[in-house]
Automatic annotation (TrEMBL):
Keywords: Hydrolase, Lipid degradation, Lipid metabolism, Signal. This is GDSL esterase/lipase At5g55050-like. InterPro entries: GDSL, GDSL_Est/Lipase, SGNH_hydro_sf. Belongs to the 'GDSL' lipolytic enzyme family. The lineage of its organism: Eukaryota, Viridiplantae, Streptophyta, Embryophyta, Tracheophyta. It comes from Nelumbo nucifera.
């Protein structure tokens, strides 16, 4: 589980490939939930995970830059698709490394990342060849410990959750719009919000208790 949570979003896309392989490569965008070490290369970032106990359950038992005791969602997804985890883009130093990465996938995920008006153009991704998008929606951000602290009752912060929902609604409309215009594009949307809220509200149903 990620030990440090900022903006809860990520998205992943991959290029069309042969019939036998689902995708040839994963290009990962997102925040601390899927950062596999980019922030180790950002000297000025405050969002760091290059210290214990991050990594205690990772092969080698050392911090890797993942905000996690072990592997994170990026690693699990790559494993399910039969691919190596895409390397942190900022770790690729040589020109050969970079050209390999653009064929084999690369991770641009960076702890603390957000979406700016200028960087949310999915059309910019489509024109580069992206055809399959897996989008993970924002979770119930108001239920993060830092947000609960702002509620005197210690319950979830309603306004933060409201904005998570608004964000997800906006993202779903954007995807629907894209699909209607770009027929050869496919996407899936993972409803993290509902899933997490179910865990929080009905812990017993999922084998845990309050
Ligand atoms: C980057 O290049 C170096 C030297 O050629 C190589 O040892 C290393 O495995 C490469 N890394 C990746 C991720 O391709
Ligand atoms: C705090 O939690 C209570 C119970 O869920 C909720 O009714 C209230 O609106 C919350 N307050 C804020 C500031 O979100
Ligand atoms: C993508 O969408 C098209 C059109 O809806 C469909 O024919 C195709 O099977 C889809 N491809 C995948 C991999 O889901």
């Amino acid at each position: 589980m990620a030990s440090w949570i900022s903006l809860l979003y990520l998205f992943i896309f991959s290029f069309i490939y042969t019939e036998t392989q689902l995708v040839p490569a994963i290009f990962m965008f997102g925040d601390s939930l899927v950062d596999v070490g980019n922030n180790n290369h950002l000297k000025l970032s405050l969002a760091k995970a290059d210290f214990p106990h991050n990594g205690v359950d990772f092969p080698g038992k050392k911090p890797t830059g993942r905000f996690s005791n072990g592997r994170n969602a990026a690693d699990f997804l790559a494993e399910k698709l039969g691919l190596q985890t895409s390397p942190p883009y900022l770790s690729l130093v040589s020109a050969t490394n970079k050209s390999n990465a653009f064929l084999g996938g690369a991770s641009f995920a960076s702890g603390g990342a957000g979406i700016l008006d200028g960087t949310d153009t999915l059309f910019r991704l489509y024109s580069l060849g992206a055809r399959k998008l897996a989008v993970v929606g924002a979770g119930a951000i108001g239920c993060c410990p830092s947000q609960r602290n702002q509620n005197q009752t210690g319950e979830c912060h309603e306004q933060a959750n409201y904005w998570s929902l608004k964000y997800n609604q906006g993202f779903i409309s954007l995807l629907q719009e894209l699909k209607s215009e770009l027929k050869d594009m496919n996407y899936s949307f993972f409803d993290t919000y509902t899933l997490l809220l179910n865990f929080i509200q009905k812990p017993a149903a999922y084998g845990t208790s309050k």
